[in-house]
């Protein structure tokens, strides 16, 4: 059986499973559609949250970024896990006690202001749509490879499937489907990693293999990796750029991802579905357990794949000649079809010279070797999917990873679309435009808004502002600067009133979005940026992915200053905050 | 809530919230120390401690901090659920 058929069978079987579960658990009432009737066990909820959370960015894109950036990419690893600490300590139990369906609902009630609710809806839609663009990018990569079509066609197919899938069921369908998706994606991620770790280090546990010795030479794997990448003019894999500006950017970026994690509506909404406040605390922990399984494997996958790629291209060591294009391995041939890996014979010798052509100090050596530019361009986002092929693992492992990548992209896209649709139908239409809308009408509005969100994300996904993980990082920046501060102040600072919260959210939103657009292009349309998105040339010396932290600080500051000079919070709101702070009585809050 | 909270319960509520905040401060201090501290800002100080071909700071940035985050969340959940019962504010 050829690889193509095998891919179709494995991916097809996984899809049949998800759709089967979605139909079986088809949503009935609106309460079920949004919050699964609040009857989900913490471990199950944690697993579903993990699937929801680990998107194409984590599964497909992250290890690629770690592989090619090395240490600086640790910001993603710490940021996307550290946010769960904030979620568990600062938000989840209180929002569960409050007991409403959506994030804007909490903001609207706590700040006793329909305007605050509306602003929260706008923030939520902008952050979630940006996030979906990143998912579409990842789904496009996955579909293009396993169906052997161009990246663009892959994207259209992905969009169609995400839409069908998200419209079929609400949260309940999604909760159980996502448990299945988690299982598929974690198996798909870890099996190739275990094989590769065994091949390179003899250690079957990838996170331990990363810090073990490289079997062929007996030196530590990371030391070996540092040598070969530096031989080709790349930066050392493990080294830290100690300049104050670089360190500041890494701190701000990590912080932005952390507070963005705690502010993203599709994750928070998960904690509305556990039975009790105590369970909300455990749920966050279980979610991180399941997330950590992938996040601890990820840096090993990245480092080992980088080493494998260089060893494939320079089979006799980096000092010898690279392989000729005619003898290129199958994985390069396969991925050339998608256009995500390209070869250009710049010096006409028929060999694949792969090195860092941007390194000025390496230029002299490249010249003496007769190299006229790096001839292989590899898109970061293919790394995880190509990994089993690079390591020459059996066909079923390759098919499995395609299924896993699609599971990751689909589950998150579905969760985000649910958050968008509930914001539009529940918070926008039912709360402000037409309070008398029927349940049926509300569901219809929810589905239409899903379709619109997918169309916009697909269109922008054709020219994404970055690799899947980078695009997603921008979404986190927006959530960090808007929703997280509002939620946290709502629970921890009684003095923050309606005007303060609205002013803070608007400041955070406008500042962050404008800064991102100035560096990534207005509305992400290519060619419309004013500043290059690098540390040295950006407007404030801060990259667009890190700016969310500054937006959040501005949000807090403005909210405090405005609240101080306007009317204090009324007594009944102070009592509401008091009641949110203690778990007792949460059962009553469920039925409303 | 149906009953008006009496003064004793209110004092209890304040004490409970204070205990919660203290726990949050401790957990967040550790959270920041392992990630922003050991993983980024203090990495040069830890460079003398070698771990598998690199240094301890790199380990914290790529693995250590994640493991500590896990411990922190479960520790907090366990302490808080106990605190809920001690102050009598847990769910029946």
UniProtKB/TrEMBL annotation, chain A:
**PROSITE patterns listed in its UniProt record:** NA_SOLUT_SYMP_2, NA_SOLUT_SYMP_3
Bilayer-crossing residues are: 6-25, 46-69, 75-95, 116-133, 153-170, 182-200, 250-272, 284-305, 396-424, 444-462, 468-493, 500-518, 538-563
**Keywords in UniProt for this one?**
Cell membrane, Ion transport, Membrane, Sodium, Sodium transport, Symport, Transmembrane, Transmembrane helix, Transport
UniProt subcellular location: Membrane
A GO molecular function annotation here is:
symporter activity
A cellular component term from Gene Ontology for this protein is: plasma membrane
Q: Which GO terms describe its biological process?
A: carboxylic acid transport; sodium ion transport
The protein's topology relative to the membrane is:
Multi-pass membrane protein
**By its UniProt entry, which InterPro entries does this protein fall under?**
Na/Glc_symporter_sf, Na/solute_symporter, Na/solute_symporter_CS, Na/solute_symporter_VC_2705, Sodium:Solute_Symporter
Q: Which domain of life is it from?
A: Bacteria
Family of the protein in this entry? Belongs to the sodium:solute symporter (SSF) (TC 2.A.21) family.
Q: By what name is this protein known? A: Acetate transporter ActP
Print the organism lineage.
Answer: Bacteria, Pseudomonadati, Pseudomonadota, Alphaproteobacteria, Rhodobacterales
What would be the name of the gene that encodes this protein? actP_2
TrEMBL record, chain B:
* Domain Sodium symporter small subunit: residue ranges: 14-90
Q: Which InterPro entries match?
A: Na_symporter_ssu
Looking at the UniProt entry, the stretches that span the membrane are: 23-46, 58-78
The protein's matches in Pfam families, at most eight in alphabetical order, are given as:
DUF4212
Sorted UniProt keywords: Membrane, Transmembrane, Transmembrane helix
Name the NCBIfam families on file. Answer: Na_symport_sm
This protein is called Putative solute:sodium symporter small subunit
Q: Which organism is it from?
A: Jannaschia rubra
């Amino acid at each position: 059986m050829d690889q193509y058929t095998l891919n179709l069978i494995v991916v097809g079987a996984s899809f049949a499973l998800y759709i089967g579960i979605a139909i079986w658990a088809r949503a009935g009432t609106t309460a079920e559609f949004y919050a699964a009737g609040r009857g989900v066990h913490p471990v199950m909820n944690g697993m579903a949250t993990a699937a929801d959370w680990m998107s194409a960015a984590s599964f497909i894109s992250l290890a690629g970024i770690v592989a090619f950036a090395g240490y600086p990419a640790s910001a993603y690893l710490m940021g996307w896990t550290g946010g769960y600490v904030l979620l568990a300590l600062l938000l989840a139990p209180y929002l569960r006690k409050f007991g409403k369906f959506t994030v804007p609902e909490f903001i609207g009630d706590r700040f006793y202001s329909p305007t605050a609710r509306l602003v929260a809806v706008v923030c939520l839609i902008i952050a979630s749509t940006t996030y979906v663009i990143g998912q579409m990018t990842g789904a496009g990569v996955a579909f293009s490879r396993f169906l052997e079509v161009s990246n663009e066609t892959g994207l259209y197919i992905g969009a169609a499937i995400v839409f069908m899938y998200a419209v079929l069921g609400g949260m309940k369908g999604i909760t159980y489907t996502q448990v299945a998706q988690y299982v598929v994606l974690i198996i798909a991620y870890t099996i190739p990693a275990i094989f590769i770790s065994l091949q390179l280090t003899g250690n079957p546990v990838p996170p331990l293999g990363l810090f073990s010795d490289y079997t062929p030479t007996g030196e530590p794997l990371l030391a070996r990796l540092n040598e070969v990448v530096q031989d080709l003019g790349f930066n050392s894999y493990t080294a830290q750029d100690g300049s104050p500006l670089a360190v500041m950017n890494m701190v701000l970026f990590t912080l932005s991802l952390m507070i963005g994690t705690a502010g993203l509506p599709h994750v928070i909404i998960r904690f509305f579905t556990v039975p009790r406040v105590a369970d909300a605390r455990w749920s966050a922990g279980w979610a991180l357990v399941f997330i950590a399984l992938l996040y601890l494997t990820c840096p090993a996958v990245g480092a080992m794949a980088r080493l494998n790629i260089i060893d494939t291209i320079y089979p006799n060591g980096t000092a010898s000649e690279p392989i000729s294009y005619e003898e290129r391995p199958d994985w390069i041939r396969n991925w050339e079809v998608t256009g995500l890996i390209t070869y250009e014979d710049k010096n006409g010798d028929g060999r694949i010279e792969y090195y860092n052509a941007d390194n000025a100090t390496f230029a002299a050596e490249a010249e003496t070797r007769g190299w006229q530019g790096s001839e292989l361009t590899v898109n970061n986002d293919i790394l995880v999917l190509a990994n089993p092929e690079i390591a020459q693992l059996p066909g079923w492992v390759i098919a499995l990873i395609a299924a896993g990548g699609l599971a990751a992209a689909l589950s998150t896209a579905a969760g985000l679309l649910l958050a968008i649709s509930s914001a539009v139908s529940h918070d926008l239409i039912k709360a402000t435009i037409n309070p008398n809308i029927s349940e049926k009408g509300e569901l219809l509005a929810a589905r239409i808004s899903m379709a619109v969100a997918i169309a916009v994300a697909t269109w922008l996904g054709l020219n994404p502002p970055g690799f899947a993980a980078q695009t997603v990082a921008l979404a986190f920046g927006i959530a960090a600067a808007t929703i997280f501060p509002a939620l946290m102040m709502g629970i921890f600072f009684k003095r923050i009133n309606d005007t303060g919260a609205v002013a803070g959210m608007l400041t955070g939103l406008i500042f962050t979005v404008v800064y991102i657009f100035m560096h990534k292009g207005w509305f992400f349309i290519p060619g419309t940026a004013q500043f290059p998105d690098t540390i040295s040339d950006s407007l404030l010396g801060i990259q667009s992915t890190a700016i969310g932290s500054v937006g959040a600080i501005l949000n807090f500051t403005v909210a405090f200053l405005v609240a101080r000079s306007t009317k204090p919070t009324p007594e009944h709101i102070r009592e509401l905050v008091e009641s949110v702070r203690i778990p007792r009585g949460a059962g009553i809050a469920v039925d409303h | 809530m149906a009953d008006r909270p009496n003064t004793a319960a209110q004092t209890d509520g304040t004490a409970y919230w204070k205990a919660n905040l203290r726990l949050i401060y401790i957990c967040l201090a550790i959270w920041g120390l392992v990630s922003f501290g050991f993983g980024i800002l203090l990495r040069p100080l830890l460079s003398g401690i070698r771990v598998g071909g690199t240094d301890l700071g790199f380990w914290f940035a790529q693995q250590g901090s994640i493991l500590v985050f896990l411990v922190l969340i479960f520790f907090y959940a366990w302490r808080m659920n106990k605190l809920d019962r001690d102050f009598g504010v847990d769910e029946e």
